[in-house]
Amino acid sequence: MDNSSNTKSTKLTEIHLSSGDDEIFHPAPLPTDDDGFIVAFNIDQHDEILTFFEKHGVVVVANVLTEQECERSVDDVWKFLQEMFNPNIDRDKPETWDSNWPMFSHMGILGSERWLYPQACDNRQNPNIYKVFCTLFGDHELMTNVTRAGLMRPTKNVYFPSLNKTEDRENWKTISNWLHLDVNPLTGRATTYGFEHVAEGHFEPSNAPRAAQNKSTNNGMRVRKLQAVLALVDCREQDGGFHAVPGFQHYIVTWTKQNEKLCLHSNQSRDPTSVQIPRDDPIREHIQRMPIRKGSLLVWDTRLPHGNYPNNSNQMRIIQYLHMAPIADEALRPFPLSKQDLPETFQLTELGEKLYGFKSWESDNAQYRFQEQRNSEVLDQALYERQVRDLMKARYQTNKNSS
Prior knowledge:
- The chain has 403 residues and is of the alpha+beta class.
- The protein contains 10 helices and 18 strands.
- The relative contact order is 0.20.
- The model is unreliable at 1-10 (pLDDT under 50).
- InterPro entries: Phytyl_CoA_dOase-like.
């Protein structure tokens, strides 16, 4: 059901973008409930969500997915692993979780492939999730990114049926101490992953980094940029997961002045839109782990240092990377999927047509942007990914039929 008209008719609260120039850092830790999870808001607590977010730079909203939607999402994860990586992977047999496991598993991420499965696609057009982003952006004309799933394998007391015993798997742990920014605060270039980038290629450095913010598309320090994870299972502290430095958005300009050399170096790195926080940076003293319940959406300001910390339990951490951006964001366009890229059993809603970029929103600016010439580099990338997906699924079906 499309609820975009309902959101449009609701007066959205004006957002406040912190100037980021506090002279000293003021820690803003998030409260936790009696079970150790980050305190979460209900979807309809618009003002409370926004007030909390503008103080902490991160907020959790509960029950954006139902129990059934979470279960179907997890089913999609295992189907994805079998079709795209190894048909012998079995969710009930940890013995199968080694061979051909996806790249980036050391970061808790399932490969670089876009997660295009029925429930995963439906989550991107979920009215509850859309409503959260409307609240945080103060805008209803949004687009969704199209990215990946995340999974951390259990590492302690894992039961192996073939051995009839439990064992630890230290080699399944993700990296420790990973803390980074997905925006270079010197150049203003923020990550465009999951969208179509409008200006420089995502991995191309800025030629004049100190003046780069003069470009309208290098707007990461001028407009609100958000990222998020969607919990598909209970993500307890011991299961590994997301950590960040809440409140850092109020201090980031001051920090950038103190770390200009680091930002210049990052501009020449493999990903010039990302800055890795040094191991000896005192800001690390204020990292907070953020456990969240199944069906919850955790949204953070891109100006927060963040990352993942390792699993230390016998349960999996499973999430979906899912966030949105305003159509008015000059740096981004919807990723150029075709409807043929979407699963046959997935039904686009009227809201989904607009979020995925198949149909324009109503404003003049949105309709103008809908007609913009697309980035040929990203179009080629989308075509290549489509061919790889088709090849892998055909190979999976062949193996399945012959077994």
